[in-house]
Structure formats: C-alpha cells, structure tokens
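Appendix B, record 7
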Amino acid sequence: MQFNKYFSVQNASAKEKRIIILTLLLTAVIGIVSVYFSPTEKLFHILNIPTINGCPLLTLTNIPCPFCGMGRSFSCLTDFKIARSFYYNPMGLIFYLVSGTIFGIIFILAIFNKKIVFKKTAKGLWYLPVLFVIVMWVLNILYGHHH
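Structure tokens (predicted):
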C-alpha cells in the first residue's frame, strides 16, 4: 500500500511487530518516568547542584531547553487544565498531540502486522522536526515558565 512519495505501509514480520511495540512501550515508559520522577533533578540533588527543575541546560546555562516545563505541562493536561499547560510550555499540548498521534498510528499498524517504511525522498524532510523543536524552543524561552 502506497500513500505518498515519502513513506509506505508494508507488512511487518512477527519479529518486527514485537520490536516496534516494545520500542514504543519502552519509549513511553522512559517518557513517563522522566515526566513524573525527573531523574536529572534527583541527580543534581545528589550531586548538591542547585537546580530549578532538573533540566541540565537550564541548570548549567540558565537558558531553558525546548522541553523545560513539559512535565508540568503534561500534568496539567491530564488534569484538563489546558490554559495552565500552555503557561508551563506553550508548545506542550501540540507536542503531546503530535507525538501521541504518531505513537498511536505506529502502534495500531504494528498490532495489524504493518510498519511504516520511509523512502529516500523522506530524507528531504529532515528540517520539519528540527523546525518544530526550534519553534518550541523560541516560544518556551519567550513565554514558558520554568520556575
């Protein structure tokens, strides 16, 4: 099945299906652990380094990273406090919607023994995630609240 010139959906072997699902689950677990338990904040505490929210970039340079405030943004979203979510990271809602949609599509395809295969032309789209992170970073520096 071909959708466009950038990727296609193809059959996945049982091994590929397991790898895809385990990778998604592992990524989700790491993300949730990072959001709720902030391991870098605990590490800075152990090392006796003063930190505001555990972000290495913010702690060491006083410049917030694109993902500063994402934990609190996620917590606000799970409590249906949408405006408060934007307060902590202006792109948090959009990031979680985009990444959740992508994860969901990949997961559902894997359940049905399908996988997404990127074509060589997709390499020309490298700038899209980079641009998204740059926009996320600029908005977070200008409007995010990290303290």
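Remarks on this record: The mean pLDDT is 90. The helical segments are 14-37, 39-46, 56-61, 70-78, 82-88, 92-111, 127-143.
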